[in-house]
Amino acid sequence: MKHLLAVLIACTAISAAAHAADQTAIVDIGPDQLFFSVTNMDQGVDPAVDFYRYAAGGWLDRVERPERLAAIGAFQFMAERLKAQMVKTIKEAAKKASTSPKGSPVQQVGDLYKSYMDLAAIDAAGMEPLRPELERIASIASLDDLSGYLGRYTLVTSDFALLSIVPSTDRADTTKTVFYIVSGKLGLLQGSIYEETDDSPRIQAYLVFLRDTLKIAGHTSAEATRLAELTLGLERALHAAKITPVEAVDPRNSYNPKPFATLQAEIPELDFTHLLNSLGAEIPETLALTEPRYLPALSQMLRSRPLADFKDYLKVKLILKFQPYLTTAFDEPVRAVNSALSGVSILPPREERAQDLMRENLGQPLSRLYVENYFHEETRAKATDMVQRIHAAFLERIKTRSWLSEPTRQSAIEKLEKLSFAIAYPDRWIDYSGVEVSAHNIVANIMNLIAFDTKREVDKVGKPVVHDAFSDTHSTLPIVINAAYDSSINGFEVPAAMLQPAAFEADRDPPVYFCRLGAILGHEMTHGFDSGGRLFDAKGNLRDWWAPQDAAAFEKEAQKLIDQANGFEVLPGLKANGPLNVKENMADVGGINFAYDALQTYLAEHPAENVDIDGMTPAQRCFVAWAQMWTLKANEQTLRYLVAADTQPQAITGHSLPFSMSTHSTRLSISG
Fold first, then answer.
1. How far apart are CA 295 and CA 291, in angstroms?
2. CB under 8 Å to 198, separation ≥6 — which residues?
3. Which CATH superfamily groups domain 127-326?
4. What is the pLDDT of residue 643?
5. Which residue positions in the chain have pLDDT lower than 70?
6. 3-state secondary structure 473-485
7. CATH of domain 4-9+51-87+378-424+462-667
8. Residue-range domain boundaries for the chain
């Protein structure tokens, strides 16, 4: 499941104690927060005609979206509870930091928070914390210098400007870590905005944001305007060379290994040796290219534009990266562009924004404190039992699919049997104790943490692969509300924060949680066999193990989902993007089917729980609970972003597509 909360935040389009002592983690959240309830339904609607309204019409009619949020739904309500827990955890750490051992999670979390909240010191410092780095950019005198600085830029920002080289698991051999050439990260997350005309309101909003930010950074109005227009022009050209979201659905399109010398020859203007040296890395024999069209395009830009343009762009990128940690005067341009691009004009309180800072830079230490304070071990055991039940239902499906040839079936069974999973938090935490984090100088703290993470990743190249569980800041940290499948390990992780109401509460009605958390677990398992995941084998290697006739049959079924999504009108004149959504729609179909099958087995084992409640059968409660979990109220800007750039379809199709493709959809009727 792609992290929907991250997506809804991204639609702004700027990359920018003991359990008994606190009951917020187990409080009954009530129907308005999309805990399963018949009051959330509209039972006057025929589910065969409009399942969305039938399942959630009562909630949709009753609840209003707060102005401070681009969207609301079960995941947003879960996030609100998590925010309260995080604020309390972080503030408690801040109180104890000065008396806690140096390098401990409490000391680091507490002091990082204090350095971020010291507004008087931050405002007094102005742009001084960036001065040394800005001077390094100013000293670039050649393309060789530029090459070296691109590596340093990644080292101090964890970001990519123009181009960088980063380590990751080799898709063709998951026992190795190799270097990938990656394209520059652009300011607008929704790339299609770059394709709009100059007078587009969104383009103009981005230009105003850039201009006002640069003016606060000390540039004259004329210079800020020039730099803003330069940035937009460069990013438009870079965007045009990038792989499209639909192309990225096929993992083969973003894995292009070539000899080092071959790739260096494709862009002779940059010296990859200098770039790697600045990262502290040795020169590899091969590199993997993620964007096939990108190097020739960047090469042409480096030939046709003056060096000064790229120095100016680096300067802008550096300021944008660190503006959240600099003077609070930068808040107003951010608020204004958020209003223009996402429809939300209210910035979260600074103590809430501190959580993003912690998650991105000190995620595992903060996660340790969260797990200690709020996670119950019995939840882990019950979630593990559910995984095993969903797995068994999936295995039975593979065994009984008549269209699979026997060799492909056996390979699929092998892959499913080797599929791994992890629940809640890692058995081995990443050790941050050697990183200097003080109660002062937030920018230095951030740079220290980024350098630690980057160097740690670079050092993995050439060594046996060791998977860092629950370490992805956007999808698998224990403090992230999500679950995620990783093709390189043929496994998935379910963070602790996901295991809370409305997704899961161990002692509640089984049909509800089989078809909420259970469907999410089945969704992640299905990702190993969706249109992209099926191209990886049981070891996680990129290898097509399907017999040609089975692959053709698979694609025929996938096309049904694509065609169905293409016909769904999200807004007047705006259709869903079937090719972009196909993997997620497949995972949803698999998830709800496996959850239902596993529920039937569970109820057969526990007949006392196979009862009607509120006039609804277990089957009805299952499907309605699933639909209510994914119910969403979003503004127009968010819906347009999801259609254009995101693979997550549930928020835009009202559950209709995967439900109607479920083999059990006919079981849901008003009569039962």
1. 8
2. 204
3. Neutral endopeptidase , domain2 (1.10.1380.10)
4. 87
5. 1-29, 646-672
6. CCCCCCCCCCCEE
7. 3.40.390.10
8. 4-9+51-87+378-424+462-667, 127-326
